[in-house]
Amino acid sequence: MKGPGTAPSGTLLTRAALALYPPSWRARYADEVGALLDESGGGPAAVASLAWRAIPAWIWPPRQLHDRPARMRASVATTLVAWSMLAGLGLIFAQLTQLQGFRVPGHPVIGWAYAVFDGALALSALIAAAGGVPLWLLMFRRAHRELRPRDSAYLLLPLVAPAAYLLGLIVTSGLFPHPHGVGQSWFLLIALTGFAAAAIAAAGPGLALRRLRPRGPALRLAATAAGMAAAAMAVAAAAIVVAVAGLCLWAPDFAGYHDAILPGSYLVLVVTAAAVTTVSAARGTRAALAGPLAG
């Protein structure tokens, strides 16, 4: 007996490609698409095309698959993960440039970009917290009231994951001191671990949103705040682009800015995260502003 949203047969690659799609899409189309690929004998090219099309399925999901609250929940969950990744990329930028006290004499635009980044990042975090905390409290109270320990654990991940990361960072720094801070390898490991902690912290509320399915004013507030926070983060991302481009042009001897591959790859990640954050938040904001919701 096949469950809903699973390919009836198909190769491991086909099932992996289908797993990249949103749950609502899989529940509606996975059986049909998997059977079609089986019957047509689709090879690696067809599977690769299927996997690639998962990106627009997340960004522009079919309207018939979501009612308004579901669209807002999906938007808030996706925006939270993308926003966390973008914030992490921004903090790496600050650590490698601004916190080193680096300026380019005669080119104040880099200093202006630092100031814009700082203000936009702080504003985005404040908006996200102000709009998201009421929804978080609503879900946590419900999970506690209905004795749902798994959902309570998911909702606590934004607190537990960063705390565990910082504790591990403090312990590691004490066990393996470096006379000049941390070396390149350690910095890369710390950054990757930080991204993992951010992903776990963001995924927790996303899973709780999917399981608890909240509605009402708190959800609408969170979706609206997500749009505003995403707009502020887009400004921060633009400041990063300006600063990194300026460093490549005017300070090629600083750090790795003489090699276009490294900063170019970094900027691709920043722009991608900013695009996903903005597009996903815009969908939720449109749904939130369409009219009042039943509680």
Structure overview:
The two termini are 37 Å apart. α5 (68-96) packs antiparallel against α8 (184-212). Helices cover 76% and strands 0% of the residues. The protein is mostly helical and 295 residues long. It has two domains: 12-59; 68-288, no CATH class.
Low-confidence segments, ≥5 residues, pLDDT <50?
A: 1-9
Total individual domains = 2
Secondary structural class: mainly alpha
Query: Span from first to last CA?
Result: 37 Å
Task: Please indicate the percent range of residues in DSSP E strands (runs of 2 or more).
Answer: under 5%
Count every helix, treating DSSP H or I runs of 4 or more residues as helices. 10
Largest sheet: none
The helix content is over 70%
CA-based gyration radius: 22 Å
Order of SSEs, N→C? HHHHHHHHHH
The coarse silhouette is globular
Mean pLDDT: 81
DSSP strand count: 0
Short descriptors:
0% strand; mainly alpha; 76% helix; 295 residues
Produce the secondary structure layout.
Layout: H1 12-19, H2 23-40, H3 44-52, H4 54-59, H5 68-96, H6 109-145, H7 149-175, H8 184-212, H9 217-250, H10 261-288
Helix pairs in contact: 1-2, 1-3, 5-8, 5-9, 5-10, 6-7, 6-8, 6-9, 7-8, 9-10
Question: Can you describe this structure in just a few lines?
Answer:
By secondary structure, this protein is mainly α. The protein has helices at 12-19, 23-40, 44-52, 54-59, 68-96, 109-145, 149-175, 184-212, 217-250, 261-288.
